[in-house]
Recover the amino acids of this structure.
């Protein structure tokens, strides 16, 4: 199944092939044909720039294993479009420099072409700046995601540590409970033994006193 990025690549390849072919025809065309070629080339260049912007957005959705390769392709496409733009400007300027202007309309066309040339350069530079800004923003997003992942890992580790500590505390409480019950049992046995000894001693004394009393009465 062809991805959206690959679909953009195919459209971009068709556009750049058309641009390259029309730049080659530009130098040998008559004035009327040149105007049509210029219009077509500039339209295709704008479409190619829009495609690159769409590819820049789409590359962020590509799986991480393929993302770097797609970014490398995108950088190559940007460089290629810039080269084609410069070739178009050069071809148009050379042809216009060799022409004589027989009418005010042709002179006006030349002035317009200079403005269009500057606009194309501005668009190319703006596209590069936008691409760099998108890359920087994407890098910040990745760094933030990494930090968030690390924080979650730390929280999970702390939670496990708390669980283990709680488990040890429960065990300690149980041991203390058993020790407390054992101590209580030992104290109770000790008290019982003392009571028994006291009773036995009291009985012995009573018996001794009773024997002495009976002996004296005889």
């Amino acid at each position: 199944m062809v991805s959206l990025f690959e679909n953009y690549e195919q459209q971009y390849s068709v556009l750049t092939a058309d641009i390259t072919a029309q730049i080659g025809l530009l130098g040998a065309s008559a004035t009327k044909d040149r105007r049509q070629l210029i219009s077509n080339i500039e339209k295709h260049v704008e479409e190619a720039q829009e495609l690159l912007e769409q590819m820049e957005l789409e590359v962020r959705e590509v799986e991480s294993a393929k993302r770097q390769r797609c970014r490398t392709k995108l950088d190559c496409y940007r460089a290629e479009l810039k080269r084609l733009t410069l070739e178009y400007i050069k071809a148009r300027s050379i042809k216009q420099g060799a022409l004589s202007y027989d009418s005010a309309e042709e002179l006006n066309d030349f002035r317009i072409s200079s403005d269009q040339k500057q606009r194309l350069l501005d668009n190319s530079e703006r596209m590069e700046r936008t691409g760099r800004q998108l890359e920087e923003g994407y890098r910040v997003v990745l760094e933030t995601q990494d930090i968030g992942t690390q924080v979650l890992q730390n929280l999970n580790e702390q939670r496990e540590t708390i669980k283990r500590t709680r488990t040890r505390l429960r065990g300690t409480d149980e041991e203390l409970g058993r020790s407390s019950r054992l101590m209580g049992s030992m104290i109770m046995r000790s008290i019982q033994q003392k009571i028994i000894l006291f009773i036995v001693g009291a009985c012995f004394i009573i018996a001794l006193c009773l024997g002495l009393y009976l002996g004296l009465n005889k």
